[in-house]
Amino acid sequence: MKVPPNAPCACHSGQKYKRCCRPYHRGAQVGQPELLMRARYAAFSYGLAAYVMQTTHPSSPSIEADPAAWERSILEFARDTRFAGLEVEAASASENEASVTFRAMLWQGERDVSFTERSRFLREGDRWLYHSGVVS
What we know:
By secondary structure, the chain is of the alpha+beta class.
């Protein structure tokens, strides 16, 4: 999906895409786990499966053994979902581990599939990666 740079960012930060998540989607390092969580939400929204896959920790239970199947499942989720909102409720980090609790407002057709998740992020070298999450 080609995203207009002046469009509001899908992470619901209130900023334009070009000044928000686009630099991360193009390879800039994300310095904070909360920003990575926002960039991943936007990537799901835009169908940027490669970004989602590249920012997932190698030991994450989210990784599928078949990368092509994993990519298809991300793209299918993006296609079938309307990303209506994102609220960050809490974020904390130590040197190598962090958590971000957020509420994602999502719709699939007429069905509300919103959820709250406490995500775990791990530092791998000089970058943060998503590891796992607990939905409540």
